Amino acid sequence: MLSAIKETLKYSRACARDRFWSSGKAWCRFGSDSTGPVTQRRQGPKPAGPFGLGRIFPDCGVALLDRRMTAALRSAPCLGENADSNADVRILQRFLKETLTSIPDRQPIGGASLKKVLFWCALALVVLITAGALVGTESTRSPSQAGGVDGDAGDRRGALVDQVVFTQESDMGKVSGLIEGGAHQVFAQGITSASVFHRIRDSQKVVSDLSYGSSVELSLNPSGPEFDDGSLNPFHVPAMREAMNRLVNRRYIAEELYGGLAVPRYLPINTAFPDYARLADVARALELKYQHDPRAAADVISETMRELGAVKQDDLWHYDGRPVRLIVLIRTEDERRRVGDYVANLLEDQGFRVERRYRTAEEASRIWIAAPPSSGQWHIYTGGWISTSINRDVAADLAYYYTPRGRAEALWQAYEPDPEFDALADRLQRRDYRSWAERQALMARGLELAMEDSARVWLVDQLNAWPRAENVELAADLAGGTAGSALWPYTLRYRDKVGGNMVLAAPSLLTEPWNPVSGSGWIFDRMILNAIEDSAVMPDPFTGLFWPQRLAGAEVTVEEGVPVNRTLDWLTLETEAEIVVPGDVWIDWDAAEGRFITVEDARGDEPLTARSRIRIRYEDGYLDRYWHDGSQVSMADVLLPWILSYERANEDSELFDPAHVPTFEVHRQHFRGWRIVSESPLIIDVYSDQIYPDAENMVGARVPAVQPWHMLALGIRAERAGDLAFSSNKADRLRVDWLNLVGGPSLRTLDRHLERARDEGFLPFAEVLGPALRDNEIEERYRAIGDWYRDRGHFLVGDGPFYLHSVHAVERSLVLRRFADFPDASDKWLRFTRAEIPELNLDGPLVVERGEGAEFLLRITFEGETYAAEDIEAVRYLLFDGRSELVLRGDAEQNEDGDWYVELSPGQVEMLGTGANSLEFAVTTHRVALPNFATHAFATVPSRRAAQSGDNE
Length: 953
Hints:
32% helix; single chain; Dipeptide-binding Protein, domain 3; five-stranded mixed sheet; alpha+beta
């Protein structure tokens, strides 16, 4: 081959006929000359990332380098979907090093040494390969890969596209232009700008999906009353936080700052979720109590500041002789910049000196999440949240948003909720209630206490538009949109073809370190992980109910009287008078002895009962699947995540993490054990006192996490050695790096531990995991992940429809490629690409005389057709008088035509008095879980007969 290259460089239009060997295996053989057709022959097993250099290097003549090399790279057919840019760069570097050391420098070609020519050829190849990966277009791609081919999705396995490239783009104004120009196909952030929304709506090449699960709030720093530097933090006082609810004008924020693409929100309940409709009367009462009242807010603020020892001088609050400074941490990527400025202006009007710190997502996370709240780096943060799926039961949200049990980060650990609120939130998180009525009463009281606490001041729920190219289709979640959809990687496709490549833009990528234990929780990072990890169950993007992905079925058994319903037929629901936990069930972990503790070990002959038992039946062959690195799944992958959770809560363990304890204690309070019933097929029983209103979601909450044990083992070794930590909280305490499987200094540390683990045959918790392994599994696992790291440059291994091909942290981009061995047919989830959201048409009189009755008619349709009665869950109504007080509530009735109606009797109309009134309908269906609302305003006036009678008198 070397002689051929020399001849080619001497005669630039000649073509070498040879093979290039990658890892000792021949891949391509090229024929004809440089201007004729290129042929390909595969020999032996397909390697991960070969290059046909026989075709490429002959065109590296000095005069032809710029144009011909690019053309050759783009036309070489041997670089298909298995091409690996990272591996190829290393092959070229190794080839260059070996070649240059064997060629004497005195052989000039066109005035340049052969060494120099080869060096620049190889350098150009490296640049072209890297650039191709970054822009999402393979440097060497056949026409079929570039745009896909005609075909039936049912004939394909796994993902419907071959490659997805994520790039970072935070400028919403560029969205329509990028998609219309074909540079991008999908934008993975909801559009909340009215001007951008209108531009997308008017485009012929861009369409959008709507979602309703995003919200904006003000996170208030509760540390204090003084920070570490002695400065005052007035938001340490709940009354000060509560007053912020009346200071802000939510309607102004929704209509002016968000251009009507938002609705006011007061409570820790998304206004588009079922619980808001169920608790509508409670919600409306609290919304009226905390409506915009700047004078009342100012009174509370003044009283609180004086109680804290502050004084007002020249209209400016002072504490300890210095002006009181409030730091507002303002996100810059969206309308939250305007929200932050608006709030800062309000606080300045109240006499505070306000410092505005504008930060991106990544910059802000280092302050409000990573830094201790007591350090005083912020007082208010313009927070944004997104529910990635329809939350049918928000009972646990009170504990999540207001107590230390919510998250491990330092901010949550600083929360000190009122004891009544804390106990109530704990009960709701564990679903410790015996009836639906009791649950609703707990929720009503919990919402009242949440407003008094106001560690978060909720502002608006957003309507998000998620843009995509007109010829692209995917399953967008009605709550989480594109980024929050668990099904996007299973449904993303071109409508008119199979395969091809796509470029997706997100406003933030690689925002925090990735690891499966306590890594990044950012929505855009989680979106990518949804494509890499294959879950056992999947949430319905329209209802929030779980469907089986790797399960053959489930059997749910609950105690008699426990309020649980079943909707879907893939599982069963039964009741028993008493559920006794068998003695051989594992209920705890002995860290000292490295073994499971059974119920019999823990309790002896004392019986243990549970409110629920769930038997989870996995599909046949579940343990015969393969991880992305080629290693086979085993029982150790099922056991280790569970063990690790217990180890991290044990003070005597080297893996102990105090930040994990609050979350673990919630688990311990309701967990009643689990056991492996069978390994082939895999069947697991889980016992718990925690219940959910939906049996499907009880299964979703109880399915054990499954992770590659060898990937976790590297992190375990690194944390035990004090080199890395799984959580940001522990990393800060130990002053080490937060473990990152995909970038940063963690990679070198993990590589070092991989070498030692391989040499030692390291297996964590060997006495338990050892019997769960296959023959030679330890050696095979470490060899697989070692090869994976050398080829991919990262340690993240999954089993989803895509694998993480390459990460480019500096450029903020990464590449996903289709996992060819994924087991499912590609059309499995395509039925979830269109939501049947009901359309409401409410009709009724505009004026009603007192003493007369009135009827109001509601028509519910979808695309012009009447919504089937069996698909409608409930149609509820609320009647408000002119003082916005709730007068009447109930359920509407259906007439023979399929429409729903409410009849008000003369006595009910009389209760309204005289003036303006409103009748509100809330509709929930089984097809989509979002409640739909319709409002009809009407006036009640004195009876004409009564008026005439009065005149005669």
